[in-house]
Amino acid sequence: MQAASRESYAAARQRLDAYAGDAAADRIATTGDEIGLVAGLLRREPRLRRALSDPARAGEDRVGLLGNLVGDKIGADSRELLGALVAGRWSAPSELLEGTERLGVEALLASADRAGELGEVEDELFRFGQLVTANPELSNVLSDPIAPVAQRAELTRSLLADKAAPVTVKLVEVALAGFGGRSFTGALTRLVELAADRRDRQVAYVTVAAPLSDDEERRLGVKLTELYGREVSVKQTVDPAVLGGLSVRIGSDLYDGTILRRLTDTRNALAKR
Question: 107 Cβ partners below 8 Å, 6+ apart?
Fold first, then answer.
């Protein structure tokens, strides 16, 4: 987002956080669902996106337009938060859509936080992403842009039934819709990171040949926390192909100490002789 859009989103996010500090978890989740529905409407209607982000219109006019469109189809909490969003200045219609999608996601994460389930939701999203990546057939089905989102969502609900928190299931459906214009697996990864960020943590993606023990994972997390000055959430991926050692990716930083990497470097060095 450009500066004006970031400021508008930040103002709406501040209101969301104040609201989420007092409301019950199920009420916040309903608000997240409703904001997500409006995001879906904006995704389908480019003319509406342009009208609601038009700098030639006064902010109160844009809020009025939104109110006329949604009426009483969504609750007062959602109308107030969306009103704060569209009243701001947006650098482009696409950034209003991005801000609306993000606000809906943050509301769902806030509901999980309120219910004491945010860490669980973060882990469930990551594990489901691993399951999808490990199953090419499932990945192809869930990532198929031609298949209706509702059809793919029905499949994920059946896979996650009684195995994941309700908010996790909702967020997987957000990923299916292409959250932020990303691929399905890319959207899942971003949602994991947003869940961690809400817990004031960074995510460390760790690839190993064999699973780390609980103690090894804890000690790695402590070392990374000391290095980055912020709590780190370690997410393990087991890949026997790396042979041994481990690689760690945090944001744009990559530390690759795997045996596979060392063998590759040696092979490349020998090839240059």
Answer: 16, 20, 28, 29, 31, 32, 35, 81
Domain that holds residue 157: 117-199
Prediction pTM value: 0.89
Confidence of residue 263 (pLDDT cuts 50, 70, 90): low
Within the chain, what is the greatest distance between any pair of CA atoms?
Answer: 73
Number of domains in the chain: 3
CA atoms of 88 and 167, how far apart (whole Å): 28
Tens digit of each residue's pLDDT (9 = 90 or more) over 189-220: 999 999 999 999 999 999 988 888 999 999 98
Could you tell me the CATH number of the domain that includes residue 235?
3.40.30
Shared domain for 16 and 102, answered yes or no, is yes
**Is residue 176 domain-shared with residue 212, that is, in the same domain?**
no
Residues 171 and 216 in one domain: no
E strands along the chain, which residues?
Answer: 201-208, 231-238, 246-250, 253-256
Contacts of 259 (CB under 8 A, 6+ apart): 209, 242, 243, 244, 245
Interval 119-144 mean pLDDT: 93
- Within 13 Å and on the Cβ side, how many CA atoms surround 246? 18
Same domain? 17 vs 42: yes
Mean of the per-residue pLDDT values for the chain?
A: 90
pLDDT tens profile 73-103: 899 999 999 999 999 999 999 999 999 999 9
